């Protein structure tokens, strides 16, 4: 689904090649139809918007940067208009604050989560977000972490286990799922 715009400086959009491969994989896993999707560090919201256009039931875009959050809002309004319902919502918030709020509120669990954090985010900060995310996942959820191919594999908390990883040029995707009981 085409976006209204992208934020520009300070964001690193997912390339078309990576997005195509990612959504092909998610469709093969049957992860999009009626999914509850969370897009953390959303940037333009392109991954969440694409999920909505492919049948997700609800999508939450979380972005702290003012300019990027405004672009997320424009893109959410566009896809909601096209779909005829308010599937995509935007939260202007730091990811850690958002995760703490939803944990305290007992918010529903997610089926698909995208994390495409900015490069300056440390591995320790990413691990903390993954730890906060673990209890908020459905039993069949998939978590997708997108990082530079030069960064190490995330340190998975005990609540998540690695399914696979794949490198696409300068980008690496890691797929994880809730750890078995």
UniProtKB/TrEMBL annotation:
GO annotation, biological process: rRNA methylation
GO molecular function: methyltransferase activity; nucleic acid binding
This protein's UniProt keywords: Methyltransferase, Transferase
Keyword Transferase on entry: yes
Keyword Transferase recorded: yes
UniProt protein name: 16S rRNA (Guanine(966)-N(2))-methyltransferase RsmD
